[in-house]
Design brief:
200 residues; alpha/beta; Rossmann fold; seven-stranded mixed β-sheet; 7 helices; 7 strands
């Protein structure tokens, strides 16, 4: 897996038909946290820097954003950070080893505000099942959004998945690490809605 690192980069290009091998990918057996939709890395870079004892994988579909994460991550010397360009549900279903993640982060996903587009939202019952498969017992799913309607849907989805999840609290310091979008929203008086669920 280490050979799948791109030259002079923290970005990876794995075989998409195989499960990721996290110990080989990071060179250690530390806990792994995954951020889906990492954007420009404004959360991921700061959180990885503050938690050198954990490994972090950021997933983003836009390659330009991943290149920004790559440049900043290498500048900061973040050996515990990797980046990957891939569709989120495929990654969770087919490439993340079951029960391997200590945390899963989804911050400010596209809210698809029009009702006829709600079926396109990332967080739905099928997603909750994939999150349950990927997280180890005691692992945490963290989400944030500024959209009230989407937040209500998130709550309904994970309350409906109570056989796998119980409501929890964010670890100390997590909410202080904000995305760039979040800081802009908050400066305009827009509230961050957040929740955490723990894998049973």
């Amino acid at each position: 897996m280490a050979s799948d690192l791109l030259p002079d980069s923290i970005l990876i290009r794995p075989d998409i038909l195989c499960r990721l091998d996290f110990p080989a990918l990071f060179g250690n057996g530390a806990p792994v946290e995954l951020e889906l939709g990492a954007g420009d890395g404004s959360f991921l870079l700061r959180y990885a820097e503050a938690h050198p004892g954990s490994n972090f994988l950021g997933v983003e579909r836009l390659f330009g954003r991943l290149r920004k994460i790559d440049r900043k991550g290498r500048r900061l010397g973040l050996g515990n950070l990797r980046g990957l360009r891939l569709e989120a549900t495929y990654l969770l279903d087919w490439m993340i080893p079951p029960g391997s993640l200590s945390a899963l982060h989804v911050y400010f996903p596209d809210p698809w505000p029009k009702k006829r587009h709600h079926h396109r939202r990332l967080i739905n019952p099928a997603f909750a099942a994939l999150a349950a498969k990927a997280l180890r017992p005691g692992g945490r799913f963290h989400c944030r959004t500024d959209d009230a309607s989407y937040f209500e849907q998130m709550l309904e989805v994970f309350h409906g998945a109570s056989e796998h999840f119980v409501a929890g609290r964010e670890p100390e310091g997590l909410l202080e690490v904000k995305t760039d979008f979040e800081r802009l929203f908050n400066a305009e008086g827009i509230q961050t809605r957040h929740a955490t669920w723990v894998r049973r």
